[in-house]
Structures are given as structure tokens and as C-alpha cells.
Design goal:
single chain; about 210 residues; alpha+beta; Pnp Oxidase, Chain A; nine-stranded antiparallel beta sheet; 9 strands
Amino acid sequence: MNIADLRKSYEKAELSEDASDANPLKQFERWLNEAIQSEVPEPNAMTVATVASNMRPSTRVVLIKGYDERGIVWYTNYDSRKGQELAGNPFAALQFHWVELERVVRIEGRMEKVSDEESDAYFQSRPLDSRIGAWASPQSQVIDGRTVLVTNAAKYAAQFMLNPPRPPHWGGYRLVPDQWQFWQGRKSRLHDRLRYRLNEGEWLRERLAP
């Protein structure tokens, strides 16, 4: 099979200005809830794009852990590659792709760390193995093999037992949006694409050509 011949006609839904919410956060919440209710695989998975000081972009998939009028929240190791890149360039982009619904949401903005209290509360809600894993994995660093992770996990499990504290290098980020895009697949590649951007403190909704 020639990969260039793989095609799909998108015909499940439409996205009009009249039917979309004037507030992008409410529109996002509507689509996220529909993705959850439709039982698409991992509706909470999103791609995070960052740019290093050498201008090379990189992406990875993480899980959204919260959202409100302040922004989109997720958690990670601050010493990881994405953490180091965000320390040098605090702007990032997120993307949700709900294939089964033929929908994409793109969000751009400035990143900030959530408060220690928020990070502590979320860390304590995680399963014990995940809390130990946050200590055991020197994320993004070169290691000699999987035995390094297993050995570290055993060491920290013995040290902290049932109550590991949040590592100082682990916590949450919040993307504060200044731009949203909602994409709905349509027939003949004439997709619906609405952009919301901040304009003097108000959200301006615009249709973009697909």
C-alpha cells in the first residue's frame, strides 16, 4: 500500500460560529466532555510542544489534569527536557486530537508553574507507585538500563514506605492561553476552523481557511 493513498472523508459533524461558544474555555469543555462521553481512547491526552534555546522544537504526550479560567494544567519533572526548555522559553503549545470525533483543539500561550500547594495536593492524590516513580526516574537523562529505574524504585520505596513526599523537582505547569483553535473535519477537505485570540482582554472569534 502506498501511504500517500491513505485518505479519509470527514463527515461526522460541523463547527459553525452560531453553534460554538463565544468563550473558548467553554467550547473546549463542551468538546472534552463529548470526547469523554464518546469513550474515545485517552480523551485527556494532549501533545505539548516546547522550543529550546537553540530554536529546535520538541513534542511529547502528557495528560491534562485540570483546567479553569486560569489555564490548562499538567504535571511533570521540572528537570526533564521539557522543563529545561520551558525554563529558557516559557511559551508552549498544546494539541488535543480526538480522531474518532474528527476534531483537533490547539492552544497556545505562556507557561507558569502552579503553586506548591496545588502540586502537593495533586501529588498526594496519585497512586503510591506513581509517587515512587517520580523519585525513581531521572527523566530525560541517559541511563544504563531499566535496572536503574527498578533499583531506584526499590530504594525510594524502602526509604519513604507509604508516604513519599513530593520531590522538589516535580510539580505542575499551567498554560495561560492567548490563542485557541478548534478544528472539525469536513467533507472535501473544506474543514471548519475557528480561532479565538485575545484582543484587548476580550476573545475575538475568527474563521480560518482550512
